[in-house]
């Protein structure tokens, strides 16, 4: 790109200093047609930065940073020291507290201010595994009305997975057992094949 004088006079000039990095500035020096009158203008260019905030999501953040500033489009390069939570294993960072967002790693490009949340997996307690029996679960859920039902509840009780054999639904549907109720700290669901 070249910039030249607008006037048809050899004394009039426009000088532009190079921009070598961001953030940075460019000086535009304008010399009038008389060759003596000069005026300098400085243009400043800033790089946009964004903040990544790390939420320990019920964990103990300790002394690690809770936020890092990153230039637009770049990755953070390194993650902070993982938080700790008694009885849980740290599984990584996610854009949603419930883990249903996008995993966030040291190479994820940052294009806006964002909060990422620690993800946890409950450690095995060594107690009952639930064994798939009706009405019992070591992870906080319960079921009634059928056999072979297994439940697992996430550490923050934000999600529940029920494994219900097809036979239990069929028995509920044909009336050989009563309504099938699945309960957890998150919700209770009743399947009544006779009401459909």
From TrEMBL:
Cross-referenced Pfam families: Flg_new
Organism: Thermoclostridium caenicola
Secretion signal span: none
Region Disordered, residue ranges: 125-150
GO CC aspect terms: cell envelope
Protein's recorded name: Listeria/Bacterioides repeat-containing protein
Localization annotation: Cell envelope
Coiled-coil region list: none
């Amino acid at each position: 790109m070249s910039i030249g004088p607008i006037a048809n006079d050899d004394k009039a000039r426009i000088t532009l200093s190079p921009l070598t990095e961001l953030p940075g500035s460019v000086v535009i020096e304008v010399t009038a047609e008389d060759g003596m009158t000069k005026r300098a203008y400085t243009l400043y260019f800033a790089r946009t930065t964004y903040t990544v905030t790390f939420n320990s999501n019920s964990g103990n953040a300790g002394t690690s940073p809770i936020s890092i500033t990153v230039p637009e489009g770049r990755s953070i390069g390194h993650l902070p020291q993982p938080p700790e939570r008694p009885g849980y294993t740290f599984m990584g960072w996610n854009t949603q507290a419930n883990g249903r967002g996008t995993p966030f790693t040291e190479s994820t490009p940052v294009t806006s201010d964002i909060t990422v949340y620690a993800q946890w997996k409950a450690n095995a307690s060594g107690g009952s595994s639930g064994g798939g029996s009706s009405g019992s679960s070591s992870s906080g859920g319960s079921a009634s009305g059928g056999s072979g039902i297994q439940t697992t509840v996430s550490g923050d009780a934000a999600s529940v997975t029920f494994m219900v054999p097809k036979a239990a639904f069929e028995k509920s549907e044909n009336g050989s057992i009563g309504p099938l109720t699945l309960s957890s700290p998150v919700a209770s669901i009743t399947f009544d094949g006779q009401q459909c």
